[in-house]
C-alpha cells in the first residue's frame, strides 16, 4: 500500500509509519505545493491531508487534487470540529474526515476502512485491481496471481511489477522505476533495476509461454499482453 501524507506535523507521520504494516509506504509532504507535486508524479492508494498547512489551505489542496483527476481516497485531518467545514470538504472531494485529537490506531483504522470501501465500490474497483492478460495484482492485499496461481514476490519486485502494471503498454525507463519504487534520494547502483527485473521475470514470465514483460532496448521496460 502506498500512502501520501500532506501534513506538516512530522511526529504524527512518524508514529503512523510505525503502526502500518511493513509493506506500506508513506511519502510525506510538509506543504500543500509539495503534496500536489508528489500526487501528480506518483500513484497512491490513499492520501492523508491536513487542513492547516503552512502554504496552501488543505481545502484548496483537496479541490486541486480532484480537479487534476486524482482518484485516491482522501482522508482529511483537522482541528476544526464544525459540520459546515466537514460538508465543504466532502463537497470538495474528500472521502472522510478525522478531528484532532485522535489516536494513531483510529487514524490507521480510518485509512483501512477507506481502502476497503473504495476497493468494494464497483465504480472504482478497476483502479485498485491491476490486470495484464492472465496476471493480476492487488495493491491492497499484495496478492499476485497468474492464471490462478499465486506468485510470491519480494518487496522491490512487487513494487516494480505494480509500477509496470499501472503503466501498462507504456515504456518505463530504469530512472522512472528507481524514482517510484526506491526511497526518494536513494543512490543505488544503476544495474540494480535489471537484477530485480530478471528475478521478476523468473517468477511471472518464465513458466509461461506468453511473456508479458518486454525490454525496450536502450529505453527501459514495458508490460503488455500484446504479442
Ligand atoms: Ca498542520
Order of helices and strands: EHEHEHEHEHHEEEEHEHHEE
The poorly predicted ranges are 120-127
What number is the mean pLDDT?
86
**DSSP E strands, number:** 12
Which architecture of the largest domain does the CATH hierarchy give at level 2? 3-Layer(aba) Sandwich
Computed over alpha carbons, the radius of gyration is 19 Å
Strand arrangement, major sheet = 2-1-3-4-5
CATH superfamily of the largest domain: Response regulator
**Separation, N- and C-terminal Cα atoms:** 30 Å
Q: How big a fraction of the residues is strand?
A: 15-25%
How many domain regions?
A: 2
Coarse structural class: alpha/beta
CATH C-level of the largest domain: Alpha Beta
Kindly state the percentage of residues in helix: 40-55%
Largest sheet: 5 strands, parallel
Give the names of the bound compounds: calcium ion
Q: Count of helices?
A: 9
Shape: elongated
CATH-derived topology of the largest domain: Rossmann fold
Task: Describe the structure in your own words.
There is one protein chain. It is built from nine helices and twelve strands. With 227 residues, it is an alpha/beta fold. It folds into two domains: 2-117, Response regulator (Rossmann fold), CATH 3.40.50.2300; 130-223, Orthogonal Bundle (Arc Repressor Mutant, subunit A), CATH 1.10.10.10. A hairpin with a 2-residue loop joins strand 8 (143-146) and strand 9 (149-150). It is elongated and about 60 Å long. Residues 120-127 have low confidence and may be disordered. It binds calcium ion (CA).
